[in-house]
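Anyone opening a protein record will find just a pair of labelled lines. A complete record is shown below as an example.
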Amino acid sequence: MKILLLTENYATTNFATGKIVKKLIDFDKNINYVVVCKGNDNRHFELNNSEVYQMPSYYTFGYKNLSTFLYKGYTKIAKHFYPYTLIDRKRFFKLACKIINKEKRFDAIISVSGWFSTHESATRIGKKFRIPVYLVYTDPFVGNLSLTHFKEKRLIKIEKPWLTNSKSIFMPQNYIDKYMNIYENNITSKIIDFELPCITEKINSQNTENFLIYTGGISNRIKDYAAFDSFLYAVDTHVECFGEKPKKASLKNVMFHERVPQKKLKQYIEKAKAILVFDNYFGIQIPSKAIEAVSTNKKIVFIYYQNNTACYEFYKKYDDILFVNFEFINNTETIKNIKSYLEKDIYINRRIYTNESQIIKVINKLKS
């Protein structure tokens, strides 16, 4: 069996989509994968038992040339008129068509995406060459927090052809509930529950140090920087943050780091007292970092704003996670609870979705 797999991130990043693609490719060595993705440059190579066609990602990876400047300028303007998460759909379509014309026969096309350029490209290609298409969602398109400035009706109009022209659609249950209410049976009957697998190995750290760790962008997660900084001071700890530093915020108790290799990041996670997780302000999305944190078996300090979000409901399954309402973050009782939580020994052995239990759903559909 030969599969054409389209994904935004695979070869050069540690994003959730790339990790899921790797788990998918490693699961069955009898399936041959040809991967189309973005990376630091334009090249053709082999990686993890797959053949990879990579095109430059000017925006995400900071590709430094005139193309970067023009690309960033274009996206800043275009995103006000059309979802920027589809900005590379034509590039994916063109490269994938070239590969199919060269290599001829493919049994199926899989798109694993949170940016959706690959979903649109995959379904167009599938229709053009009459190849079955399977879509794996790591984020929702309708209900996506980064697309709230577009009317839902318009997003549905854009997305509906992808769903109509696909054979199977995989997405987490919290997205399915939304999609069941907006699409017809001919689409919803193809949707399969696919919880994002454990995408970080368990970390059993013994000798921890007095700091919290946070990975990802923090600027759009904190409503009040001064209150958060004051909270860290009161708890007598600091945060090691692996993400972009906010431009207009002063956080004395947060240490920012540039992007580091995964091995070094794991060492920081092992030493940390707990992992810090911020919830989204609203919506059906669960941050991939929240799922990664659960899978490490580390203590988690979960800061939330609303108690009806998908992430809040997801974390309620576990009694070893500390919930902190940001509204009361500097409350005396909150400070006391956090200090106690960080200092006491807790046996953590969370039951989570395994890689195999979710990946096998996709493999079974491919072979059916």
Observations:
- DSSP finds 13 helices and 14 strands in the chain.
- The longest helix spans residues 89-103.
- The chain has a mean pLDDT of 86.
- The CA atoms of residues 130 and 265 lie 43 Å apart.
